[in-house]
Amino acid sequence: MNNRSETIRNIMVPIIAVLLGFILGGVIMAAFGYDPVNGYRQMFSTVFLNPQTKQINPRNIGEIFVTAGPLIFTALGFSVANSAGFFNIGLSGQALCGWVASIWVALSMPNAPKAVVVPAALIVGALAGAAAAAVPGILRAFFGTSEVIVTIMMNYILLYTANHIVTHVMSKDLISNTGVSNRVGANGTLQTEFLRSISNNSRLNIGIFLAVAFLVLVWFLMKKTTLGYEIRAVGLNPDASEYAGMSSKRTIIVSMIISGFLAGLGGVVYGLGTFQNYFTQGASLSIGFDGMAVSLLGSGSSVGILLSALLFSILKLGGPGMQMVNIPSELVDVDIAIIIFFVGISFVIRFLLAKIFGGKKEVAVVEDVESKPADQDEEGGTL
């Protein structure tokens, strides 16, 4: 197969999925009597322009990166687990662990310098997410349990445990109201005066820079290290990996821990960067499930995840603006769902692209191989 053609297809698949999502979403808007062109125009105008001056709004630009930061971490977590051959549906719970743990650490060190508090909160939050992910990893490795079922159920366990901690376990000195913690001090927040000043007082914080750094680190881990090779090998064929001397059990557990570690960091950025406190949650964090969608749309690659996270942020922030032209913002969620649907059936898009990019020759080769008897070699002899 031509490598250049395959690269083009890998780039075109998510682009086509996004375009088809917007087109079909527009058709749905029109079917309900709304103007899709005006709706999309208002959505993007809400994200990028000041409604009064119609100039670029640096505050909204900053908020795009605020929303993208946690999504990048959870998407990376899903990508690592997916490379090992299983779905980590527990990203929401693992991110929640990171959020609660980091807030607790930051509030418990009110007089320590920022150079101590922030790294400590990042490490503890990431380890909390890793510990939560280790449980389904161990159960999968040693008992063959379904990681999908275990991680889904653990989302509820971690959700109610986190709420219990804030309501009944944290010191009263750290609580402002029932189920709501105090806000962290200046020594514990990921926001800075410089970033606030250049983004017109948005919540822009160093979380997005950490996310970009981990995009590079995870790419290096997966593509340039022995551990990354083992994770990908186990994901492709655990039996062959065992035969080659790799421990599939160890690799499954390690990959799950890494996945939870990244999700925990997403929770830290969500807590210390976006809200700066913790408050009782009524449902699993959306950044977990949105991170899965971001990873799928980005094909698990670092560049793809970055671009997908920015796109999702734009859709999330611009959706409410559609209400200004009397279009329900929920239709943005419909667009996202349609985009994910087309990513899910990417094999159809790949088949069509194969026809366009010299696919006839490849199809002929495939047909020739399939028509050859299975018990004959290339010279026609019996194997």
Describe this structure in a few short sentences:
By secondary structure, this protein is mainly alpha-helical.
List the helices and strands and how they pair.
Layout: H1 3-31, H2 36-48, H3 58-83, H4 91-108, H5 114-143, H6 147-169, E1 175-177, E2 180-181, H7 193-198, H8 207-224, H9 226-236, H10 238-243, H11 248-275, H12 286-297, H13 302-318, H14 330-344, H15 346-356, H16 359-371
Antiparallel strand pairs: 1-2
What does this structure look like?
Strands 1-2 form a two-stranded antiparallel sheet. Helix 4 (91-108) runs antiparallel to helix 5, helix 4 (91-108) packs across helix 12 (286-297) and helix 8 (207-224) packs antiparallel against helix 13. It is built from 16 helices and 2 strands. The longest helix has 30 residues, at 114-143. 72% of the residues lie in helices and 1% in strands. With 383 residues, it is mainly α. It has a domain at 68-308. Strand 1 (175-177) and strand 2 (180-181) form a beta hairpin.
Secondary structure tally, helices: 16
Q: Mean pLDDT, as a whole number?
A: 87
C-alpha geometry: globular
Task: Give the oligomer, counting copies of the same chain as homo and different chains as hetero.
Answer: single chain
Strand count, sense and closure of the main sheet?
2 strands, antiparallel
Strand content: under 5%
Distance from first to last alpha carbon = 26 Å
The poorly predicted ranges are 360-383
| Rg computed from alpha carbons, rounded to a whole number of angstroms | 23 Å
Percent helix among the residues? over 70%
Instruction: Please state how the strands of the largest beta sheet are arranged side by side.
Output: 1-2
Number of strand elements:
2
Order of helices and strands: HHHHHHEEHHHHHHHHHH
Which structural class do you get from the secondary structure elements? mainly alpha
